[in-house]
Task: structure prediction
Amino acid sequence: MTALSDIMSKQVQYCTPVDNVYEVAVKMKKWNVGAIPICEDGNLIGMITDRDLVIRGIAEKHPGSTKVTDVMSDKLITASPEMSAEEAAEIMAEHQIRRLPIVEESKLVGIISLGDLSLARNTKDDAGIALTEISEKPELHH
Result:
């Protein structure tokens, strides 16, 4: 059984509540990522995905100076570093998410993506199942 601590990305780029959505977009481009966690004093308080920028930002005609807290998702699904990759894949499939923040006592310590799961030995099937379930339920995408 593979623990998330063994395969998660530990060097996670993040923004803070005082940042704006333009700064989030710049970080996404610079680091070639599709999600940026929002942390305050190291505590995870939200996430912004590239889809959030489009749907809650651009489509709603918010300027680049809009606060991240106006666009971020704050109802977060998280995991702990001790959780198994199999459990993470199940959670990601159930909640229709492609990235899962890893926290310890509310502190962001890493992030796992479907790509991370697919690259990890013995978890390729779990990632495939999660991706299939995410892709098959378009009514749950938000």
Notes: Helices lie at 4-7, 21-31, 50-58, 85-95, 114-119, 124-136.
